[in-house]
Amino acid sequence: MLKITFIAYDGTPYTVEAACGTSLMRAATDNRVPGVDGDCGGNCACATCHVYVDPAWTDRAGVRTASEKDMLNLVPELQTNSRLACQITLDQGLNGLVVTLPESQH
Amino acid sequence: MSAQFTTARARVAALDLNQANPADPQGFVDDSVGLLFARLRREDPVHLSHSPVPGIDTYWSVTRYQDIMHVDTRHDIFSSENGITLMDFPPGDDQKLRMFIAMDPPKHDEQRKAVSPIVAPANLKNWHELIRERTCMVLDSLPRNETFDWVDKVSIELTTYMLATLFDFPLEDRRLLTYWSDISTANKLTNPDAPEPEVRMAELRKMLGYFTRLWNERVNAPPRSDLISILAHGEATRNMGPLEYMGNLVLLIVGGNDTTRNSMSGGVLALHENPQEMQKLRANPALVESMVSEIIRWQTPLAYMRRTVMADTELGGKQLKAGEKLAMWYLSGNRDESAIPDAQRFIIDRANPRQHLSFGFGIHRCVGNRLAELQLKILWEEILRRFDRIEVVGEPVRVCSSFVRGFSRLPVRISA
């Protein structure tokens, strides 16, 4: 199991365990991390699993997909380290990953 | 179950699917269209449908959840530029309303981004108190022990207040917004009671006149947080022509009016028909949040969105040709058992209640979704504080439209 930390907008950290192969979005929603909605269930179709990847992890988290770029284009508060959590598949290299959450999902 | 519905069920069961035309508003008036969609999902999920209405003619009906998700997320193949309803614009018509929901990127993205902040959750915090105050006022004014129309007294009243607030529109004229919303979706070709097209355009021009006055006031004043000020000052929107301004107004008025209004009515009916869910809610009021999503799924206040095929493609085993049009029937996808367990049942504490299609998915996903949810959440919180039950005491009257799925009348009674 991998350890993943989500830091809420108010600074509260939520550390959860997730299996390799699951998406970062599922790691949050399966563990009821508040602040990640995942309305579309992981189809990269709603942008309600927006996260900011900690700068130390951006390289390992990979790059945005084409459809992810389209959807991220619509989020408020877009940053260079913005990703949709449903488009990040967890593997051993992401053990210890830290991401922060935006104020809200829209 | 009404006699009308029983007859409709027999009719749908016996129907030759070659004759199936889900866009016929009659199936919405008698609420039998769900039976037709159940057959289509099973027997011909991507269905070539024909309408006798000129301008609608031939269209594909996409009825399964996953196929709808595919179409909604592939805006490169399935364009919105020719409009979001099945009715085609007359050839050479330069009078067509331009609205960002009926645009493709990049222009869509620019205009959407201009209005998006006002309904972004961070901004919604500013609305909480005001929405609650108005909701309480409306609910406290309702009669007891007598029959009244929930649509008029609550659903229209609350959504119109909200819309007037978003636009900073004169409150005393707020029912004009309801009127214009109804006028803009009225279609003489499919609803005999609708106004003639010339009358409709004349009314919409009055609307434009009214809003142009507001625009001129706002553009000459410092930027403020209301939608008209945002449009008048926004870089992507300040140079819109009159038809584009009107188009986007219609979009925001219908988007913020018809939809939430009908979910406010549909929720009352759903809880009346499912008393065990009302009991669950009473026992655990924290379920309001998931119930709101379930109500929005159950009602599906916009039954479909249209797309135009840009390149030959395959969908559900059918060959779709460039230039053809299709309806993504959200109402059908929201009842698809292969994606939503027990989809035919109204369950306020279901797993993953937010994974419904009512807001659409992809780049055109409803921009006001969180505001809609907030309005419904506050409404139900305040209903629970006041009323033991809201009893539906007569047949609901459904809107004659296959696009807006809603109610024009819902007779109810609240005991003292």
Summarize the structure.
The complex is a heterodimer of chains A (106) and B (416). Chain A is α+β, with helices and mostly antiparallel strands. Chain A is built from 3 helices and 5 strands; from the N terminus they run E-E-H-E-H-H-E-E.
Please, could you describe this protein's structure?
The complex is a heterodimer of chains A (106) and B (416). Helix content of chain A is 17%, strand content 21%. Chain A has 106 residues and is of the alpha+beta class. Chain A has a single domain, classed as Ubiquitin-like (UB roll), CATH 3.10.20.30. The longest helix of chain A is centred in the first third of the chain and has 7 residues, at 24-30. With 416 residues, chain B is an alpha+beta fold. Helices cover 47% and strands 11% of the residues of chain B. In chain B, helix 7 (128-140) packs antiparallel against helix 8 and helix 12 crosses helix 14 (288-299). Chain B is globular and about 55 Å long. The mean pLDDT of chain B is 92. The chains are: A alpha+beta (106), B alpha+beta (416). Chain A binds chain B through residues 37-41, 43-47, 67, 70-71, 73-74, 76, 103-106, and chain B through 69, 72-73, 75, 105, 109, 112-113, 116-117, 119-122, 352, 354-355, 359, 361-363, 365, 369-370.
